[in-house]
Amino acid sequence: MVQRKRRLPFRYLEPAFFGGLLDDPLLFLRIRPLRRALLFDCGQIAHMAKRVIKPIDTVFITHAHMDHIMGIPTLVRHHQISPRPMDIYGPPGIVERVHHLLMGYDWNLSEASWITLRVHEIHQERIAHFSFIGAEGFARRFDGEEPRSGREIWSCRHVTVEAEQLDHKLPVLAFRIQERPCFAVDHRKIKAQRLVSGDWIRNLKSRVWKGMPDSRVVVTRREGEQLWEETVEQPESLYNSIRRELPCASIGYLCDVGWTPENRTRIEAFLADVTLLCCESTFLRAEVEKARVSYHLCTTDLNDLVNRLKPRYLLAMHLSKSYLRRSGDLYHELKPPTGTTILPLPKHLVPAPLMVSDVAGWLQPPETD
Fold it and tell me: What order of strands is seen across the sheet that includes strand 250-254?
C-alpha cells in the first residue's frame, strides 16, 4: 500500500528547512496567498536556488554569530536590482553587524535601481529603524525609533511574527510565527438564523475581512417557502454570529539559548502550544556540561522543553558538527510526549565540497595526434 505524505496543518504558511541537521539553520516560510517569503536566520545560503531566494523580502536574525548572518551579502547579490526594499529584523547590535558586512565591499558603481535594506533593531522597550540605501552605495541612515509595548514586530493580513529576547551570553531573539484567523462560516448557524447561503457571504467577507468602506450587506432569509432580502447595517456582528471557530497554527523558532531559569520561564510563556517547534539541540545527553558552558541546549533540555510546550510537531536542528558520524543518536535520545511528532532531517543539505581530483581534469590540454 502506498503511503501518502501528510501536510503540516498550516493554512497560509508553507514551511521548508534549507539546512540539514548539521548545517546552518535556515527556516524558510512561504506565505501562499502573497507569494512572498520570510527567512529565519541567514547563514550559508549559496545552495538555495535563486528562484527560492527571490521571493524573500523579510529576514529575521536570532543573533549575529557567523552561522546565522553570513548569508546577508548573498541575499543582497540576488536582490541587488530591486525596486522593493528588504527588511531585516534582529537583536541589539544587528545594525552594526549589517553595516560591517556591507562595507566589506566596494559599491562605486551603484545605481538608482539598487535595493535598499531596512534594518530594525529589536530592544526590550523600543525598536530602532535604519536604512542602507543601495542607490547611495548602501549609505547608512537612521530612520527613527518607536516604543515597543508588546511582542509583535511584523505582520500582514495572514501572519504575525513576535519576538522574545533571551540570553546566549549576548542578546538573542526567539520568534513565534502565528497564522491569523481565517474567514469561515458555520452553515449550521446560518440555517439556524433562517439565512440562505448566497453571494452575500462573499460580500460579507469583503466588508468584514478586507475592510471595505461600504459596511452594508444585503442577506437573504427564508420562512417556509417564502424568501426575502434584508439589509444588515452591522456586518461584523452578523459575521460573529455565524462564524466557524478554527484553530490558528503557529511556529516557534528557538536557536542558541542557555538553559537558565530566566530563559526557561520566558520560553515557556512565549512558545506554549505552538503547532511546530523548530529548536536547536546542539549537544547530546553525555555532553551537558559543554552545553552549559556554551549556552546551548542538549537533548535532555529539549526533552524537558517539549514536555512543557507540548507542540504537535518537533524539528530538532543545529546539532554540533562534532557528531558527524553520530547524528542518529540525537533521535534516539529525544523522548517527546504523546501527541508530539518528530520531523527528522538528513545530516546535510549543503552540497559536499569539491576536491582537487574532482576538477583537475578540467584544465588538462586536449590530446593531439
Answer: 152-155, 159-167, 171-179, 250-254, 276-280, 313-317, 341-342
Strand segments, DSSP code E, in 134-275 are: 139-147, 152-155, 159-167, 171-179, 217-223, 226-232, 250-254
Choose among 74, 72, 67: nearest CA to 321: 67
Q: How many Å apart are CA 323 and CA 333, to the nearest integer?
A: 13
Whole-model pTM?
0.90
Cα distance between residue 76 and residue 24, in whole Å: 19
Length reported for the chain? 369
Tell me what pLDDT residue 193 has.
87
Torsion on CA atoms 150, 153, 154, 157, rounded to nearest 10: 0
For 184, the grid coordinates are 469561515
Does the pLDDT at position 3 exceed 60?
Answer: no
**Which of the 8 DSSP states describes residue 35?**
T
Quick one: pLDDT band at residue 369, thresholds 50, 70, 90?
A: low
CATH topology of domain 13-180+249-342: Metallo-beta-lactamase; Chain A (3.60.15)
Provide the pLDDT confidence category of residue 354 given band limits of 50, 70 and 90.
confident
User: Mean pLDDT over all residues of the chain?
Assistant: 93
User: For 76-90, what is the mean pLDDT?
Assistant: 95
Domain ranges of the chain: 13-180+249-342, 187-242
Beta carbons within 8 Å of 88's beta carbon, 6+ residues apart: 58, 59, 60, 61, 72, 94, 98, 117, 118, 119, 120
Please, which pLDDT band fits residue 174 given cuts at 50, 70 and 90? very high
Query: How far is the C-alpha of 51 from the C-alpha of 68, rounded, in Å?
Result: 21
- Contact indicator for 350, 19 with CB cutoff of 8 Å: yes
pLDDT at 1 over 60: no
d(CA 329, CA 299): 10
Beta-carbon-side half-sphere exposure of residue 170 (alpha carbons within 13 Å)? 11
> Helix %, strand %, coil % for the chain, to 5?
30, 30, 40
CA distance 258 to 53: 31
Does residue 45 contact residue 21 with C-beta atoms inside 8 Å? no
What is the per-residue pLDDT for 5? 66
Among residues 18, 14, 60, which one has the least CA distance to residue 36? 14
Cβ atoms 117, 147 nearer than 8 A? no
